[in-house]
Amino acid sequence: MTSTLRRLPQALSSPRCGTSRASTVPRFHRTYSTPATPTSAQPWSNPPSWTNVAEDEIAKLAAMRRQPLTLGDLLKHGQPPLSKQALLDSANFTLSLLPARLAYRIQCLRNLPFIVVSNPHVSRIYNNYLHSLSTLLPYQQRRITTLAEEKQFAEVMADLVQTHTNTIPILARGFLECRKYINPGDVTNFLDSHLRARIGTRLIAEQHLSLHFASQPISDENPNPPMSQRDQCPPNYIGVIDTALRPARIIRSCEHFVGEICELKYGVRPSLVIGGEPDAAFAYIPVHVEYIITELLKNAFRAVVESGNEREPIEVTIAAAPDVPGNHMYPVPNLPHHARDGDVNVDITEEVPVANENIRLTSASSQSITIRIRDRGGGIPPEVLPHIWSYSFTTFSENDLPVGENGNIDALNTISGSGGNNTSSIAGLGYGLPLSRAYAEYFGGSIAVQSLWGWGTDVYLTLKGVGRISED
């Protein structure tokens, strides 16, 4: 699927911002033309800097109630390959979610101080959102009714995913350069909200793209996939979601990856043992779990090596909560920012039918799995502990920021970007833990840290899946 995405130039020149100002909202006056037909996704020789999206259109969309997203929503169209109608339903569901989310993020960027949005890097992200919204507007006033339109829409989704691939490192550099003009607490609050919203936007787009490619070839003349294709699709995958995800397998994969880098950096490789329920499985998104586990293991490996306790194994315990209907229901105390913004719904109380009649999601008993990672790395210093959830960009100078794939941050830190999200260029900035928490909390999970200074650290990762997926 990756090869089909439109690739963007890595180095984009920075647009100039207008000099006029209304409150803290930058006004951009030039426009660029969108295609006459909504095929979109053309490679850019210049950055997507100016758009003809009307101001009142952005305000109208941003003011709309954003429909909460659940794992059940992403699974409801059924297991691929999809029929014509199920694929069209997925496209229209995707289209119903994204424009309001993009417009709201544009408004949030505009609410930053003018001098911050004028920064070339922050401005680039702002214009990327304008570009993505402009490519969706030709579809926004109507439904997608043919597979030809769905194919064009899939190209728009591929363009959207590729456009926002490097949002995190670009924003990191922009806020670092603007640190004199904005309070660190305000930056943390903005990034916390923005990066959580980005998770949802990418997930919605990637889910439809995955369903699209897994359902080819179908056409308006032949709306059902061939029987032979149905045998080729992995039975446990619905789009980007693994309905039988086993955390133990991902932990072992991440252990191998982190261990290789650790051995390269330090010449030693700590051991890791898995206890509890290693066969536990639930429905979740593998790439999210991989990113979180990689970050947590990186911290644990580094701690034990640098404290001289590399002979002490890192203990990982997997515990699956009893899958009793209603037992794992939230309201969650102190809902995170994204939940208050209507970005995700963690309170699901009914059985959800999906497009495949023989599959049902019993989401009232949403399964949760907790993973404890225990190390003997000496713990977290008391003066550091209160700041572990902050985006610690202010502790680095501009020269310390990595550029592209070749940064001067040490090798062990560079693994923070694994998991398919191209975040390796934020290594060393302190984004790992808060970003991991954003991934965990997105669907009602959590990360908690307990540190015994002078001894070690326990990290508790809880992930809330979609519950059992039963076949009638």
Automatic annotation (TrEMBL):
Among Pfam families, the record links this protein to: BCDHK_Adom3 (PF10436), HATPase_c (PF02518)
Keywords for the protein's UniProt record, in alphabetical order = ATP-binding, Kinase, Mitochondrion, Nucleotide-binding, Phosphoprotein, Pyruvate, Transferase, Transit peptide
Q: Where in the cell is it found?
A: Mitochondrion matrix
Keyword Nucleotide-binding included in the entry's annotation: yes
Gene Ontology MF term list: ATP binding; pyruvate dehydrogenase (acetyl-transferring) kinase activity
The Gene Ontology CC terms held by the record are:
mitochondrial matrix
InterPro entries associated with the record: AK/P_DHK_N_sf, BCDHK/PDK_N, BCKD/PDK, HATPase_C_sf, HATPase_dom, His_kinase_dom, Sig_transdc_His_kin-like_C
Biological process terms in GO annotation: regulation of glucose metabolic process
EC id: 2.7.11.-
Which residue ranges does the record annotate as region Disordered? 1-25
Instruction: Return the Polar residues bias intervals.
Output: 1-23
Q: Can you give the residue ranges of the Histidine kinase domain? A: 286-467
Q: Is Transcription regulation one of the keywords UniProt gives this record?
A: no
Family per UniProt?
A: Belongs to the PDK/BCKDK protein kinase family.
Protein name per Swiss-Prot or TrEMBL: Protein-serine/threonine kinase
Query: What organism does the record attribute this protein to?
Result: Talaromyces proteolyticus
